[in-house]
Amino acid sequence: MPQHTFFMLLKATPHWRALDADAQRAVFDEALMTVFNGHPELRMSRYSAGAFHGRCTHLIVWELLDGADAWQYEAAVEALHAQPFFARPLFEIVDVIAGIEDDVDTLTPLQAFAA
User: 58-64 and 42-48: which strand pairing?
Assistant: First the structure.
């Protein structure tokens, strides 16, 4: 089964930019703990994109482990909406791009079916 991945593009708000580096790290640590403790089959990694992209300042990559249900991603995002991460808001969601791993061995039977 292909791995589901969600690319969440975020834009920092003035609330985020007003935080010092330690407070920003604490916010991300709290978000990571929410994901890891409540959704064990979901991985979250974050990237700074502000210096490279005008549309967003941060990128979060969410990965569901093989066979995991997409509800874990949905539930984790909902949990973050209850925290300052999105509730204050510290970030605005610019876009979410969902995809599946492009594994030719996995997709070959699907392509044969479509032919």
Answer: antiparallel
Question: How does DSSP classify residue 68?
Answer: -
**15: its two tokens:** 């609330």
Distance separating alpha carbons of residues 77 and 58, to the nearest angstrom: 16
Complete edge-to-edge strand list for the sheet that includes strand 91-100: 42-48, 58-64, 4-12, 91-100
Question: What domains appear along the chain, each with residue ranges and CATH number?
Answer: 4-114 (3.30.70.1030)
Per-residue pLDDT reduced to its tens digit, 28-62:
888 888 888 888 889 889 999 988 878 899 999 99
**Predicted pLDDT of residue 39:** 87
* Cα atoms in the 13 Å half-sphere on the side-chain side of 107: 6
pTM above 0.70, yes or no: yes
The answer to whether 41 and 104 are in contact (CB under 8 A) is no
